[in-house]
Amino acid sequence: SQQGEEDPQALSIQEGENATMNCSYKTSINNLQWYRQNSGRGLVHLILIRSNEREKHSGRLRVTLDTSKKSSSLLITASRAADTASYFCATDASSSNTGKLIFGQGTTLQVKP
Amino acid sequence: NAGVTQTPKFRVLKTGQSMTLLCAQDMNHEYMYWYRQDPGMGLRLIHYSVGEGTTAKGEVPDGYNVSRLKKQNFLLGLESAAPSQTSVYFCASSPRVNWNTIYFGEGSWLTVV
Hints:
The structure holds 2 protein chains of 2 kinds. In chain A, 0% of the residues lie in helices and 55% in strands.
């Protein structure tokens, strides 16, 4: 079963614009992570936000977490063509610290130059 | 430092054939994982290992077996391949101390005809 549901499934913007992707999940979590996947490549870890955090920044990335709504958003500011990729949220809900993540279906972002 | 390396990268199997995917990591990570990624779906955990000599089932373990005889290697076996196992397989690893940050391989594309 998929823990994370992402919205939108696809997003197309112009370079310089901001891109916002949303993720909803079903159960209580320890943390939520965002990953990026370029076409034909593996996933790359972007940012992790813990369940007791509400917002986190890393460069042009801003992640928010609302545990009451069981949702998170990833904002990429001043997007670049190189940001074109698929973005996945992943939740860790396990009671044991084993890194068993449950991934959402992903948002495909296209940034047009 | 190669990170997580998967072999082979591409393989075509006939239904009923067997094969083994090899994952090797050179980061001395304790935890290793095998995921599969299908179109329109996020990654789903097949099996994982929290240390040499240990394995455990993930979300979709049926039809697969794994072994972790050496800390740096995690093997995924298909005993009798089925068309439903056509997928992209990703190996990943994480350290015990910072197990939240997972490092992925580049993927193995498997087609079962």
